């Protein structure tokens, strides 16, 4: 059997889930292998992931409770249609869902609201409480302290008798240390009760329920290719992308953001891709390098922040709360640029080796919703973030690689085995996706009832990297609120292809 024929068989046998559980929000791996198939070609596939991501409160958390599985199962489809009208020109449309998130915390932990939650971490709140008490008490004049004391005793200061008693008590306050001490103690107790009542009211603004996030994207890549010779393929085209999502932050881990909701209505943006492929069909050698640009989305996010009145605890906080409540503006979300390198070559009769390397620019990615950012600016100095902080950000770029071997077993059957690695996008990581890279092993099989169509399936087992999870307020530092270890995932894929 010629390797040229084997090349087609093995390429289609590869497991249809390049990314599935990659770093940050990466999902599909954004393969263009379907566009590089010979002749006219159509394929459709689906991948399903069943992860288990469990952990324990740690780091800055005051408790050490276990965190049950917070990663949701999900699936995503893909499809491709490619035409080869002449030997030198080809056109294709690829559909995939490149980025996404699906997570929900349950049980009793710092990511689920409880009655004991406070608007800020207990230590920070204790400091603000005492400072507010001292400030309010010290701002009272002697006349105000004496007047408040007499009013609390039922004295009517509007009457002549009341004014006479007021003047006598004021003189005693100014000249008798014992009287002064007694009145100050009573006034201080009253101020303390008022502050504590205000804090209880503020803490009552906190959200109920649990932290959860769902983000979905869709890509349509329109590709035109030029093949000057049998060996070379130069291709490029625009990419249309949509993004939508929902987010709820709950629990003590998010302090003043406990109760924050964000609804990202579906929005679209346009980017582009370009690449170069080289092949020598007789030895089943094929290599391609593909660049995808970043894509900007300007979004009006519907944000709900019920805890804004808590800003009154801070100097000039009332004005800041009113300003944030009335503010409106767009949020820019930029999905990252990436590069894919794919390679395969024949290594013996009926056998090819293949590899994929992917780089994604996650270190340049962040999301700071408009009102979220304004609130982070207001409270940032409390957590040593004077310029505010992002809802989500990543410290490192992602690099992933998959290598494997495919073999034709008969005229109708082919299979492959593979090993994959992903670097992750930094550690600590966001609480909304607390894993740090992975290792995986995969097995794929293809059945071809006729030479022009096939059914391929595969399974991969992922050993997920341990990660420390941090909130947006902690990002960029070493603080974290939970630790996730010894987690795994299993993925399944099914793909059907037809050449016409």
From TrEMBL:
Location in the cell: Cell outer membrane
Signal sequence residues: 1-22
InterPro entries recorded: OMPP1/FadL/TodX (IPR005017)
Family, per entry: Belongs to the OmpP1/FadL family.
Keyword field: Cell outer membrane, Membrane, Signal, Transmembrane, Transmembrane beta strand
One matching Pfam family: Toluene_X
Tagged with keyword Transmembrane: yes
Organism: Acinetobacter terrestris
Protein name (database record): Long-chain fatty acid transporter
Entry membrane topology: Multi-pass membrane protein
């Amino acid at each position: 059997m010629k390797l040229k024929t084997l090349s087609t068989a093995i390429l289609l046998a590869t497991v249809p889930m390049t990314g599935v559980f990659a770093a940050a929000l990466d999902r599909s791996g954004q393969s263009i292998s379907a566009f590089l198939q010979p002749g006219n070609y159509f394929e459709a596939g689906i991948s399903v992931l069943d992860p288990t991501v469990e952990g324990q409160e740690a780091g800055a958390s005051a408790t050490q409770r276990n965190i049950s599985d917070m990663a949701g199962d999900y699936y995503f489809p893909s499809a491709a249609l490619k035409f080869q009208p002449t030997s030198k020109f080809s056109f294709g449309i690829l559909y995939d869902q490149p980025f996404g998130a699906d997570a929900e915390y349950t049980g009793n932990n710092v990511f689920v609201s409880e009655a004991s939650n406070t608007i800020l971490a207990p230590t920070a709140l204790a400091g603000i409480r005492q400072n507010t008490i001292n400030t309010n008490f010290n701002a009272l004049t002697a006349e105000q302290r004496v007047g408040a004391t007499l009013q609390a005793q039922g004295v009517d200061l509007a009457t002549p008798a009341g004014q006479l008693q007021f003047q006598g008590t004021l003189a005693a306050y100014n000249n008798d240390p014992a009287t002064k001490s007694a009145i100050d103690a009573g006034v201080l107790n009253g101020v303390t009760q008022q502050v504590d009542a205000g804090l209880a009211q503020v803490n009552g603004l906190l959200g109920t329920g649990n932290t959860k996030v769902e983000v979905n994207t869709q890509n349509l890549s329109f590709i035109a290719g030029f093949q000057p010779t049998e060996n070379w393929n130069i291709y490029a085209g625009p990419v249309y992308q949509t993004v939508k999502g929902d987010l709820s932050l709950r629990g003590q881990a998010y302090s003043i953001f406990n109760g924050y909701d964000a609804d990202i209505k579906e929005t679209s943006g346009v980017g582009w891709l370009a690449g170069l492929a080289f092949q020598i069909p007789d030895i089943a050698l094929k290599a391609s390098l593909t660049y995808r640009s970043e894509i900007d989305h300007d979004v009006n996010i519907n944000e709900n922040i019920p805890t804004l009145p808590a800003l009154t605890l801070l100097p000039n906080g009332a004005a800041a709360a009113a300003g944030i409540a009335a503010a409106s503006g767009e949020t820019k979300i930029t999905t990252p640029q990436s590069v894919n390198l794919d390679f395969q070559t024949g290594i013996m009769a009926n056998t090819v080796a293949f590899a994929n390397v992917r780089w994604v620019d996650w270190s340049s990615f962040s999301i700071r919703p408009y009102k979220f950012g304004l609130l982070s600016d207001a409270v940032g100095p409390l957590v040593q973030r004077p310029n505010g902080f992002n809802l989500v950000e990543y410290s490192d770029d992602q690099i992933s690689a998959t290598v494997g071997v495919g073999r034709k077993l008969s005229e109708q059957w082919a299979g492959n085995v593979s090993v994959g690695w992903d670097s992750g996008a930094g550690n600590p990581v966001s609480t909304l996706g607390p894993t740090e890279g992975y290792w995986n092993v995969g097995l794929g099989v293809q059945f071809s009832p006729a030479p022009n169509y096939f059914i391929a399936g595969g399974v991969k087992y992922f050993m997920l990297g341990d990660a420390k999870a941090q909130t947006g307020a902690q990002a960029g530092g070493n603080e974290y609120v939970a630790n996730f270890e010894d987690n795994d995932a299993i993925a399944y894929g099914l793909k059907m292809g037809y050449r016409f």
